[in-house]
Every structure is written in structure tokens, then in C-alpha cells.
Amino acid sequence: MFPDFTTPADWLPWVFASLMGFSILIYVVLDGFDLGVGILFPLADDAQKDRMIGSIGPFWDANETWLVLAVGLLLVAFPAAHGLILTTLYLPVFVMLIGLILRGVAFEFRAKAQAHQKARWNTAFFLGSLMTALSQGFMLGLYIMGLEVTAATLAFAAVTAVFLAVGYSFIGATWLISKTEEALQKKSVRWARESLWGVILGMGAVSLATPLVSDRIFGKWFTWPELLWLLPLPLLSGALIVALWVMLRRLPLPGDRKSWAPFVTATTLFALAYIGLAYSFYPYVVPEQLTIYDAAAAPESLFIILIGALVVVPMIFGYTALAYLIFRGKATDLRYD
After folding, report:
1. CA gap 270, 169 in Å, rounded
2. b/e map of 275-287 (b: 16 or more CB within 10 Å)?
3. How many angstroms separate the CA atoms of 197 and 66, rounded?
4. Which residues, in sequence order, are CB contacts of 170 under 8 Å at separation 6+?
5. Rounded Cα gap, residues 165 and 199, in angstroms
């Protein structure tokens, strides 16, 4: 499972794969909730939309930094995989970038636009969020299918795109439960209840498809004693889903007690699902085509890059943590005056 750490060629690719995987996980959780807030935008009234924007305003740009870091690590540490992955996923990556640009522009302009133009920027923010979520889900589906482009893999990618968008809206709703009050909080609880079904179905679809992709992954899932490594993940995931189901039927509680619990639980659930995928595909960075060792840059290059990463990654983590510390508590309207 792990390298023997005797030479740099053994441990450096594993270190960079771990850093890249950690960056993607942080991005999926953090930018996932603010994309989810954008997807939920049409379901709120104008005043609630302002409060929803206020809940993600201090964080959204820091959240996207983790995506830049992950892609940067893929480029410099695994250049062969970078070329293969982005060549195959060129169109959904293009759609994602357009969505991210549209979101960023709409985010800033809606706060400064005249009243009669604000609705257009609200629509642009929703569309940008939806485009980004759907394209990421489509890329995830094709990646699970080994980057093969057939009618069946495209259909699976389309299903994954929808379920990931629903998953983002779910974690966005749980974020709003913790950051808002009164009518919007109650509405967010209802959104979370309704979208939890999409999370269950999405995780089920991915779980059914992943072991069928290759005999190697099937063996990791269903042979002894490898089964013992994976068994805690579905058991814990099932327990977390039940916990979410129960708490979403009790919230909101008097005094706003435990409003943070659904977001923390949802974050843990997403992390477990991601760990399951990472376990399944390791040591491949391109499923069944390139391992992290085959795709890695020269050890000398990786060592130099590692020195920079040891400086940059803690700075990004510290900046992100500081933002969440400073702007903890309930959200207020985002204002520029």
C-alpha cells in the first residue's frame, strides 16, 4: 500500500500524490458548499439571496485556491498524467473555467449593480455555479471510467454530474443551516432534507460502478484480507447518513443548538467517500493506465518542488483557517459601502 521510503524515487511520488489528494479533498468540501449555495440561489427570495452571498463572501476565493494548488501539483509533479487527463477532459474543463469566471464576475457585480440589473447577476451566479458543479461531476464520472469515451461512459458521467451538483447543494444547505437564522435557516433545513436523497443515490451509483471498472479494484473491495481495509468506510458512511437523517428532522433546535452539526457530518461523509475512491485507484493517477511512479517527474525536480510546497501549502492552509476564524458566526449581508 505504501512505499518503502528507501529512495527518493519511492517516496517523493507518494508525497506529491498525497498533497494533491489532500488539496482536492479540501477543495471539494470548501468550494463544494459555496457552489452549492449558488445552485440553491433560485429557491430563495431577494433578501435571502443577499444573506446567502454574505455567508460565503469571505471564503469563496480562498476555497478556489485549493483547486489551483491541486492542478499545479498535477502539472509539475505528474506531467505525463496532466497531459493525458486534461486532453481527455478538455471540454468539461473549459466549461468549468467559464463557470468559475461567470461566478466570480457575478459575485462582485451583483453587489454593485442597480436594483433592476441585480436579477441578471443573480441568474449569472446560479448558472456559473451550476456549470462548475456539473462539469466537475462529469469529469469525476469519466475519471472513474478510466477516461474512456464511449456512449456508456458518457452516460455514467452525465449521471455523476447531476448527483455531484445535488451533493454540492446538500453541503451548501448544511452550511447555510450553520450560518443563517430564522426563515432562511428553516428553508435550508428543508433543502438539506430533500437533497440528502441525491447524496445517497450518487454515492450508491459510484460505489456500484467503481469495482466494476477493473478486476484490480474489484479485488481490493471483495477479497480477503483486503476487504478489511475498506469495510470501515461503508459502515461509517451509513452511520453518518442515518445521523444526518435524524438531525435534519430535529433542526432547528431552540437557541440554535447544534446548527453546526449537519455541516460537520456532511463534510466527514464527503471525506470518507473521497478516501474510498483514493483507496480504490491507488497507485494509479490515471486509472489502469499510469501509476504515480510512472507519471512522476524526475526525483531531482520533485525534491526542489517539495521545498516550495513545504512553504506554500502551510501558507494557503493558514490563510484559509484564518478566514474561517475571523468570519465565524452567523452571516450578515455582504456590503461594499
Report:
1. 13
2. bbbebbbbebbbb
3. 28
4. 36, 191, 192, 195, 196, 198, 199, 266
5. 9
| Residue 290 bridge partners (DSSP) | 286
- With cell 479485488, the residue in question is 219
Residue 26 amino acid letter: I
Non-local CB neighbours of 175 within 8 Å, separated by 6+ positions: 33, 34, 36, 37, 55, 56, 263
> Among residues 78, 62, 76, 65, which one has the least CA distance to residue 23?
65
> Residue 225 gets which letter from DSSP?
T
Band (pLDDT 50/70/90 cuts) for residue 337 is low
Using DSSP, how many helices (H) and how many strands (E) does the chain show? 14, 2
Q: How far apart are CA 305 and CA 316, in angstroms?
A: 16
Of 156, 245, 231, 235, residue with least CA distance to 199: 245
* Per-residue model confidence as pLDDT tens digits over 79-105: 888 888 888 899 999 999 999 999 888
Q: Which three cell numbers stand for residue 150?
A: 464511449
- Give the pLDDT mean for 200-204: 88
Please give the average per-residue pLDDT across 57-62, as a whole number: 80
Report which DSSP code applies to 298: P
Neighbours of 251 (CB within 10 A): 21
In one-letter notation, the amino acid at residue 15 is V
How many other C-beta atoms lie within 10 A of the C-beta of residue 119?
A: 13
User: Which grid cell sits at 179?
Assistant: 450560518
Global pTM reads 0.90
Comparing C-alpha atoms, which of 321, 166, 168, 192 is closest to residue 259?
192
290 three-class SS: strand
Query: How many CA atoms within 13 Å lie on the side-chain side of 193?
Result: 13
Cα torsion angle, 96, 102, 105, 109, sign: negative
41 touches 52 (CB < 8 A): yes
Helix axes 46-56, 151-179, angle to 10 degrees: 90
Domain ranges of the chain: 9-326
Per-residue pLDDT at 31 exceeds 80: yes
